[in-house]
Specification:
By secondary structure, the chain is an alpha+beta fold. The chain is built from four helices and twelve strands; from the N terminus they run αββαββββαβαβββββ. A hairpin with a 2-residue loop joins strand 1 and strand 2. The relative contact order is 0.13.
């Protein structure tokens, strides 16, 4: 076949090779609609910026918030540590900052710790409960830290000289329940007659 037969007809050449307009660093492909390439070129950064803003807003909405004694909320980054609870919007839990204790000492049993959680009056609510193991694992224990294994900005001054009881009873025996060491970030289970502190929580904004 001759070289001439390899040459595309004019209308096919236009379709296969669109014109390119170069203006400085701006390169725009001109198809049938001369503005389509420019519109796409300008729209991509805008869409990217909107997506970044949406992700940033979603992250801010899910970030923990400190709850002050008067009920006002401030960001977790606020340097104040006189807050009484921490709100976790991503799961809907609010956790009291002060440990459940008997005059500063651990309760004598898991049942006594659990009862103290039920009788807590805080922020105008009386539906507090001893936190389940999932709340400790997700919101309290932070293994980026050590002795205690918690973010002290969120949970300042927690005693660590005993374990913290959870409300989660062991599936193999109702006589045992899970507890955690906030000193090292460990999770264990003991007989419910052992001593321990606790943390109270409730469902937020219910």
């Amino acid at each position: 076949m001759s070289e001439a037969n390899h040459t595309l007809p004019l209308h096919e050449a236009k379709a296969a090779t669109p014109f390119i307009h170069v203006a400085g660093d701006l390169i725009v492909r001109l198809d049938s609609n001369p503005l389509s390439g420019l519109a796409g070129f300008l729209a991509a950064p805008l869409a990217s910026a909107i997506a970044v803003a949406d992700r940033s807003a979603a992250k801010d909405d899910a970030a923990p918030r400190k709850i002050l004694a008067d009920g006002n909320e401030v960001p977790a980054s606020d340097p104040r540590t006189d807050h009484v609870a921490v709100l976790f919007p991503d799961t809907g839990w609010i956790v009291a900052v002060k440990s459940l204790a008997a005059n500063g000492r651990p309760f004598k049993s898991q049942q006594a710790t659990e009862e103290a959680g039920k009788t807590l009056q805080l922020l105008g609510y009386n539906d507090w409960q001893l936190a389940p193991d999932t709340v400790y694992e997700r919101h309290v224990i932070d293994r980026c830290y050590h002795e205690p294994a918690v973010d002290k900005n969120l949970f300042p001054d927690l005693p660590t000289d005993d374990w913290y009881w959870t409300s989660t009873v062991a599936p193999w025996s109702s006589a045992s329940a899970f507890d955690v060491s906030l000193r090292y970030g460990l999770v264990h289970s003991f007989h419910r007659s052992y001593s321990g502190f606790g943390l109270a929580c409730r469902r937020a904004r219910q």
